[in-house]
């Protein structure tokens, strides 16, 4: 009996250790919050690629600055990726870049170039136009509601900084 218990315990330990060390090579999905931010990423290059794509698709760029350690960053991402209306709107109007801020990589130089958005805490959002110019920095606390973010406030934020909202033609009077 002792032998059987010892074998069962050993098997459990081996399987648990193996489960913790198994790595995947699958692409990270927008809903995979454990891998949302990448400390080793070249954020400047990621932003340049997003600006290029935004210019081609008449979009703006949404920088979500935070880290995998930040529960509010994860909550915001969960809301936007799991709510069909928010997800469609943000993907139709923005190229999204998750910029890491963590002890491993604070992206100090980049954040200085963006006007020190970390002063607002995390997550913090920076909107760039399709040329890479900073249009707006959003303190996410204004989007909070309870233990999460307000869908209505987030949608209003997205709409207020979308390309259409900033296009002067959107405000021209239509001839009757």
Short description:
With about 180 residues, this protein is of the alpha+beta class.
**SSE string, helix = H, strand = E?**
HHEHHEHEEEEHH
The poorly predicted ranges are 14-28
Helix content: 40-55%
Number of strands: 6
* Rounded average pLDDT: 87
Instruction: Tell me the domain tally.
Output: 1
Q: Calculate the terminal CA-CA distance, rounded to whole Å.
A: 90 Å
CATH architecture term: 3-Layer(aba) Sandwich
Q: So what's the CATH class?
A: Alpha Beta
Corresponding CATH superfamily: Glutaredoxin
Overall geometric form? globular
The count of helical stretches stands at 7
User: What share of the residues does DSSP label as strand, in percent?
Assistant: 15-25%
Note the main sheet: 4 strands, mixed
The CATH topology assignment is: Glutaredoxin
Rg over alpha carbons = 21 Å
Structural class: alpha+beta
**What order do the strands of the largest sheet run in, or round the barrel if closed?**
2-1-3-4
Provide an overview of this structure.
By secondary structure, the chain is an alpha+beta fold. The protein has one domain (33-167): 3-Layer(aba) Sandwich (Glutaredoxin), CATH 3.40.30. 44% of the residues lie in helices and 16% in strands. The strands form 2 sheets. The protein has a 4-stranded mixed β-sheet with strand order 2-1-3-4. Strand 3 and strand 4 (134-139) form a beta hairpin. The radius of gyration is 21 Å and the shape is globular.
